[in-house]
């Protein structure tokens, strides 16, 4: 029949809209049906809706649709079928309200959980609906809105910008919630006044709820609706309630006042303090103690000022009333760094270490490195060497136990021999070296032992490219064993390579720098040059003159001359030197090879390659430290 | 317990609601003794027992409603979904003289209320078990649906036990709990995908939902009556 699609589509659309809050899905068959039929075809008489408010009664409304000839009262009649038994019958509406086109079912005619079917019939029993409008009462319940909606202010945020509100209400009076006849849950919605984007809070069955985060000054509109729990249809919204909280002026006025008070008090306190300090110098001392100026004992700080270098150097060299001599012991005792000079990575021989612990010089002394190439590559080999912060920048190769760069060391100060043990164990490792050519280092026994075992303050005269340091003695020392050492040396010559086990031998092979016992504290440049004559060309950029282990020969002459110094001269044609070894050496120049010239040469062969080489030579004998302004002159 | 897939909001709500009830509601029904008979639960009061029974019923209704919606979405073509608003399908009705309006309910006795509830519960135990088996054979049935129906079926059995105990306590009568029979009311036909069978299952779920609601309200009215006779008018 032609009306079939229209009624079907109509009910489809209405039922879908009433049952769910979602919009039509586009692929909905109802939608297609709607567009194809509902728009064009006239709609016949139909029921608009049946609603129960409290699950005890219900009402149904109908509409004649497009059939205006049926719009007069009584043209359409409502029949219902209550399927509570197999042989039930259609009955007419118990109570009409023709004005509203409503059929009302009272308590006696309402049964829950029993299907009802409704029909619209015309005068002559013509049925206008293709499908009966069937339902069960609990599914058409739309509860009345809650009543007595009210709100109370819970709190205001510390910033004073937002607040929370507790809303409470009563369940609809018609719904028998107390007896459990209906289980209701509520939904609150709120929005800013005069806007329509309602925000819904979560549904819950209690009769109060908190709205968080409302803003001060704005006016909000709140309303509520409810539905049966686990059902779909909502009731109507209640009347709106308006919430507004304006700013609290007291808080605002308090805040700046407090702030001003605090600042004022602070300012006054500061003022009093300043006045007190200015009046009372003692107070000033307590509060702002003076910063200590740099001081050196025994030296007038005035001398440290610029331009008074000479006096300072004089004093430091001990020319004063023994300023340095008394000074020096204190000096090195006060300097903790002296003790921390470690020479190399010794083997894990504790005993050996014990012996050596007292003598940094000993550590610095090492069996000389015969081969230059070995020395040069020594650094590379020492990659694996753990370089802890021991102050040695050298590339000691622990495996080889040799310190390629040798420390021509001269022990500087007499000290107590620690024990009769071999203090030169460090150097004993020299025998371990398997290099073919071992520099014969004159060993010192006895006397050197003494000074080797003691800690002393050694001046670094030079630094090897491999990192070893050349020490020079600071003071005159006994040189008793030079002769004996010379003897030993003759024996030890060439012996080192095979003597790897003889650690107990009290042979210490050193390559020593002859110390000038003059006590001048400085070595002349010529001496230094003699000291450090590299057998091969210096490595570019080395910056230092290297003292290579060289075969040491006895030099009776040297020894004789060095009666005062306990050192053995390394006997090499190149390394004859009698230079006084000083505590400090002033670097006068840097020559073309980037060596630090301790005493500038008399300009025999000016280096051609470096025309810009600084030729400033200090007029005075270099006696002192390299001051920064001098250093500037030295850099090439 | 059953692991539920918390994908949709509905599920989330349900799960959130479920757990506290599970904790409380699963406890009291340890009053059965070894032979399946009944024993008093001296440790729990009657009010508490009734409360827990009511909680059971509420949850059962909620879960059954969700199961029905799920099933409807998955398997029922939309035009036939109009039956949500209509009840033009026959439910499994036995000649149960169960009151169907508030006034009727208020007029009947406690004894009759309890017996009505028990009858309802017992009439649904077997069909739900059957529903489990048929649902498993659907193509693409979501696990959630299976879990829910399984849960409902189990909870219904617990509810039955609770009501039996309640009857024993309140009415001092001994009732028997349902025993399973392999021979159910329904035959296990093949071809579950045919519309006819789909509609049958859908009808089953809808009718059970309705009856679950009924159980809940009956129990609640009973409770109200227990507390205060006069305010439950």
UniProtKB/TrEMBL annotation, chain A:
Molecular functions per Gene Ontology:
cytokine receptor activity
Ranges for region Disordered: 349-384, 480-505
Q: Which UniProt keywords apply?
A: Cell membrane, Disulfide bond, Endocytosis, Glycoprotein, Membrane, Phosphoprotein, Receptor, Secreted, Signal, Transmembrane, Transmembrane helix
Instruction: Mark the transmembrane ranges.
Output: 255-277
Q: What PROSITE patterns does this protein map onto?
A: FN3 (PS50853), HEMATOPO_REC_L_F1 (PS01352)
Subcellular location(s) of the protein: Cell membrane; Secreted
The residue ranges flagged as biased composition, category Basic and acidic residues, are 489-505
Q: What is this entry's stated membrane topology?
A: Single-pass type I membrane protein
Residues annotated as domain Fibronectin type-III: 145-249
Q: Name one GO cellular component term.
A: extracellular region
Record GO biological process? endocytosis
An example Pfam family from this entry, by short name, is GHBP
Q: Which PANTHER family is this protein grouped with? A: CYTOKINE RECEPTOR, INTERLEUKIN 5 RECEPTOR SUBUNIT ALPHA
Q: Which family does it belong to?
A: Belongs to the type I cytokine receptor family. Type 1 subfamily.
Tell me the protein's name: Growth hormone receptor
From TrEMBL, chain B:
Report the GO terms under cellular component: extracellular space
List the subcellular locations: Secreted
**Which PROSITE patterns is this protein grouped with?**
SOMATOTROPIN_1, SOMATOTROPIN_2
Q: Output one GO MF annotation.
A: growth hormone receptor binding
Among InterPro entries, the record links this protein to: 4_helix_cytokine-like_core, Somatotropin/Prolactin, Somatotropin_CS
Residue span of the signal peptide, if any? 1-24
GO biological process terms, semicolon-separated? animal organ development; growth hormone receptor signaling pathway; positive regulation of growth; positive regulation of receptor signaling pathway via JAK-STAT; response to nutrient levels
Q: Which UniProt keywords apply?
A: Disulfide bond, Glycoprotein, Hormone, Secreted, Signal
Similarity remark: Belongs to the somatotropin/prolactin family.
Protein name per the record: Somatolactin alpha
Q: Which species does the entry assign this protein to?
A: Sparus aurata
The top of its lineage is: Eukaryota, Metazoa, Chordata, Craniata, Vertebrata
